[in-house]
Design goal:
Elements lengths: L2 E5 L2 E4 L4 E8 L7 E7 L6 E6 L6 E3 L7 E6 L4 E6 L8 E8 L13 E2 L3 E6 L1
Parallel strand pairs: 2-11
Antiparallel strand pairs: 1-3, 3-8, 4-5, 4-9, 5-6, 7-8, 9-10, 9-11
Length: 124
């Protein structure tokens, strides 16, 4: 049974930092591209960041470039999203997702495994 379990969300103030973690089980983690998506109330789910399993190349949506980093620890089957200089517009439920795509795709349809999400709320 494949499981992706996110943790690390919470309520913070603008300018603060958070680190999200996603622990994966039930699949060969090192062979999956890992991504983070987010969904704010009333909005569609959007790509935030991803890291390829082939090249470890990372990609980010423009609004988080320079503030967020993504990393993976294949020994721990965990992917991380370090979020710095948080803004109120970063408020959303954050989901991690796993896919066999060799590159970092930005559409949710490329990822077959999803976590339940963790809430991030940034107050102004």
């Amino acid at each position: 049974q494949v499981q992706l379990v996110e943790s690390g969300g919470g309520l913070v103030q603008a300018g603060d930092s958070l680190r999200l973690s996603c622990l994966v089980s039930g699949l060969s983690f090192s062979s999956y591209t890992m991504t983070w998506f987010r969904q704010a109330p009333g909005n569609e789910r959007e790509f935030v960041a991803g890291i390829s399993w082939v090249t470890s190349i990372t990609d980010f949506t423009d609004s988080v470039k320079g503030r967020f980093t993504i990393s993976r620890d294949n020994a721990k089957n965990t992917v991380y999203l370090q979020m710095n200089s948080l803004k109120p517009e970063d408020t959303a439920v954050y989901y991690c997702a796993a896919g066999v795509t060799r590159r970092v795709g930005k559409t949710e349809y490329e990822y077959g495994h999803w976590g339940q999400g963790t809430q991030v709320t940034v107050s102004s």
